[in-house]
Structure formats: structure tokens, C-alpha cells
Amino acid sequence: ASALTVGGGGWRKALALFRRKDAEWQSQRLNDRELFVASLEERCARALEADDLRALRAVLRAAAAAMSAPRRRPLAAEAPSPMDVAAAERLVSQLQRRVRLLALQALERLDIEDPRVRPAVDRIVA
């Protein structure tokens, strides 16, 4: 079954929560994003320690929303495409590495077939 049909209402609520986190992330400046990720790292550590699956789902949603799409590496014959300002900032701050690590930590404990995590998982694998 596709992600659109899995779980009915649970999936719709999860999608709404994910979209809210995505909008929140997109509206933040780099300094705010640094604080957001640091807070997320603390929340993840507490959730893992307490084995709090609800909190881990929230961490996963936020981490997935913060992920940028991977960029294709240039072929040997191609000139590398220049990084945009946002990409350079992400590289310098290593935010993407940190949010991917958070997503992996949450996914180790969560069921990826759970409709409540499907929107985040779909974003990660897209």
C-alpha cells in the first residue's frame, strides 16, 4: 500500500505535524537553526534514555523536516556546480550531518511501517 493509504487518520495527522515542522524549519535563520538542532539533540537523548517512542517520533519529524535533499556529485567531465549560500552555511555548521544522525538514532527504535512516522520516512528516502 502506498503511504497515502496507510493508516488513514493517523497518517493525515502525522503529515500535518510533519508539514508544521517543515514550515518552522524553513522560516528559521542559521542561528535559530543551530539552537533548534541543539535542542533536538537534547530531546533525542532524553527520549532514547526514557525509551519514549512518542518523543522519538517528534524528534524524527523535526529531523526529517530539517534535512535538505542530497545533491548529485558532478561527473568527472563536469565542472562542479557552485554552492548556493544556504548550502555553504549548512556545510560550515554541519547541521545536516547532525540532523541525519538524529534521524538515524530515532529510526533505530521506531517502526518505519508505523503510519505516524511515514511522512518523515518518506521525506528521508525521497
What characteristic shape results from the CA principal axes?
Answer: globular
Number of strands: 0
Radius of gyration: 16 Å
Assembly classification: single chain
- Class by alpha and beta content: mainly alpha
SS element count, helices: 6
Unreliably modeled segments = 1-6
| Gap between N and C termini | 17 Å
Beta-strand level of the residues, as a percent range? under 5%
Give a short overview.
This protein has 126 residues and is mainly alpha-helical.
Describe the structure.
By secondary structure, this protein is mainly α. Helix content is 67%, strand content 0%. Helix 1 (9-26) crosses helix 3 and helix 3 (53-66) packs parallel to helix 6 (118-125). The protein is globular, with a radius of gyration of 16 Å. The model is unreliable at 1-6 (pLDDT under 50).
Topology record:
Layout: H1 9-26, H2 30-50, H3 53-66, H4 85-93, H5 95-109, H6 118-125
Helix pairs in contact: 1-3, 2-3, 2-5, 3-5, 3-6
Q: Which keywords apply here?
A:
126 residues, 67% helix, 6 helices, globular, disordered N terminus, mainly alpha
